[in-house]
Amino acid sequence: xxxxxxxxxxxxxxxxxxxxxxxxxxxxxxxxxxxxxxxxxxxxxxxxxxxxxxxxxxxxxxxxxxxxxxxxxxxxxxxxxxxxxxxxxxxxxxxxxxxxxxxxxxxxxxxxxxxxxxxxxxxxxxxxxxxxxxxxxxxxxxxxxxxxxxxxxxxxxxxxxxxxxxxxxxxxxxxxxxxxxxxxxxxxxxx
Length: 191
Description:
7-stranded mixed sheet; Aldlse_KDPG_KHG; Aldolase_TIM; KHG/KDPG aldolase; 19% strand; single chain
């Protein structure tokens, strides 16, 4: 078997899959297709932690997340496709959108979106460092999300108008951090 004919093409889902070689003659190889994925998750976030002393921007962001019921999560392999996909989602009625740190040029994309859609609630996800948190805030993020609670990011965000949504999984994490942040994403695993 000719290994060149059996090699996989990059699929829109980003993963190369082994393919059974086609019958002769072989089709010409396809070029890589950039991908973009927008997924949505329903959020039931508690506003009980929002105190009267919190900034109005944090309260507005939390209210927008609660009223929309969805945080659209955008991950793309290309900055331009990320901008186009985010624009399509926002034009289609999504009001809360998160762009993941794995998207190339995430801060430039965010800055362009903030300029084009000033009323949208735009944030950055998978924020794991202080540098990324500061860059996201400078680009206009209204919220930051992390898959876990990153204390340094939490400390940088406190005292700003940016909402920090860390991920928690255990009751201990939930109880410990409920006094430190306005809201949190509860990660539920199932088999």
